[in-house]
Amino acid sequence: MGSDGKLPTSATAVKGPKGWAQRFLNVGFVAGFLLVLLTYALVSQQSQRFGAVVASSDDVTASITSKQAIKAPGEAGLAQEDGGEEKAETTRPAEASADHHQHQETSGDSNQDDQQQPEQEWRPKAVVTEEPPKRDNAAAKPFDNGKVVCTTAGPYSDTCDVFGDPYIRRTMSGIPEVTITQLDSTSASSPAPACTVRHHVPAIVFALGGLTGNYWHDFSDALVPLFVASRRYGGEVQLLVSNIQPWWLGKYEAIVRRLSKYDAVDLDRDEKIRCFPRVTVGLRMHKEFDIVPEFSPDGQRLTMTDFTAFLRETYSLPRAAPISLKQTPEKKPRLMLLHRGHYRKIVNVPEIVKAAEKAGFEVAISDPRFGVQVDELARSVNSFDVLMGVHGAGLTNAVFLPKGAVVIQVVPYGKMEPLAKLDFGDPIVDMELRYLEYSITAQESTLLEMLGPDHPVIKDPESVHRSGWDKVAEYYLGKQDVKLNLERFTPTLALALDHLRQQ
């Protein structure tokens, strides 16, 4: 049988079952050999389409030769909204703890048109369609392929040290995938490409796009991992950026310039063959918006306090500690109240301001927008002793607070405490800030009035979680606002004040 499904037309007849078997084996061998040659030709042509980045030693060259766009099954594309912020059109349940930030905005939870659509009746599904992934923070196990050492077993990221995937979340759609090929520089038949630019500093390859553009993801997915990867080099490192976003590099220019003394290279458009003594491909995210010291490269044991101290130095922030009420009891600690202009906003802000002032705070309401300068925002936040807001991207600004300050996270109704702890609670503690969490009741959520007490969203939040992440995000992050019960909330303000009295 030929490859086209027809009987072979050879003039020589082969008789008997053994003859036919032998002939099939011969044909299969020839077809397999031709397939190998065809595959080799296609791979060779593909590898010549892009410029190369190589990490060379005396006898081995590891070459980043090709990239291809990848998209996971069932994953939505990205829509451009709000001055460069990219948001997922729909969210995959498998990325529940990360992709919910499509409902969080940029640096100050900027206002958007938030007109309510007529409510349609919804009931939870009886069967679990897909469980969110297990967040295992166990150390990833590297594998060593000659001079290429890759780590792929972590919960979020693939990274390679060349002496994977350049975006921090390995399943993100629309991000080019980097292929690492090892070449023998001594081979006469297929030698490594000649260097057109030879660098004397190491390089880090990473990608922008994806969820960057959301303020929280800017830090969790890019700035924190980039700090961990590059800090060991003291600025003597070249950044090679795939899917480059010039506006992003401009927004965080002060941070990027301190991590690398060299202009970032646009990897997608660069046609040079650059040679480095060492290349790290991809950033590694230890946890959401956090650092695990034992996972730091070269035994540095970096922490989130190292990162926040780095930011204070970068932006010349004057305060390294909050107010000391022991030394200056006559002064009032300052509280910044983050005001969201749309979903998850506090609807009784004036009452909260009065309660906080009565407790002994000086209160300022903050509503920074997307276009605000980061250095200006950093200086403003650093002047406060307490940062308070509903779960959302604005709480990312805790990185600019002085060590020992207080963060109050108001957690929306709907069993959202695990997510709140993962995204902000744990990182804030690791910044050596005092973390206070206030979870609202159904009576403090506008969902109660919208849906009624017998709706599953109110009556049985666990059933909503079992139905999938889309409904969790739709209702608990996207449709509810908050009206704090002052009698319940006032003790939280008292705890914050007591902490500052101990400083």
Describe the structure in brief.
By secondary structure, the chain is α/β, with parallel strands linked by helices.
Can you walk me through this structure?
- This protein has 503 residues and is of the alpha/beta class.
- It is built from 14 helices and 19 strands.
- Strands 5-6-7-14-10-11-12 form a seven-stranded mixed β-sheet, with no helix packed on it. Strands 8-2-1-13-9 form a five-stranded mixed β-sheet, with no helix packed on it. A five-stranded parallel β-sheet has the order 16-15-17-18-19, sandwiched between helices.
- Strand 18, helix 9 and strand 19 (434-439) form a beta-alpha-beta unit.
- The chain starts with 15 loop residues before the first helix and ends with a helix.
Helices, strands, pairings?
Blueprint lengths: L15 H32 L5 E4 L3 E11 L7 E4 L3 E4 L7 H4 L42 E4 L2 E4 L7 E4 L12 E10 L12 E2 L4 E5 L7 H16 L7 E5 L3 H6 L1 H7 L5 E2 L7 E3 L2 E3 L22 H11 L19 E5 L10 H11 L2 E5 L7 H9 L3 E5 L15 E6 L5 H14 L3 E6 L6 H6 L4 H4 L1 H7 L1 H9 L8 H16 L2
Parallel strand pairs: 1-13, 9-13, 10-11, 10-14, 11-12, 15-16, 15-17, 17-18, 18-19
Antiparallel strand pairs: 1-2, 2-8, 3-4, 5-6, 6-7, 7-14
Helix pairs in contact: 7-14, 12-13
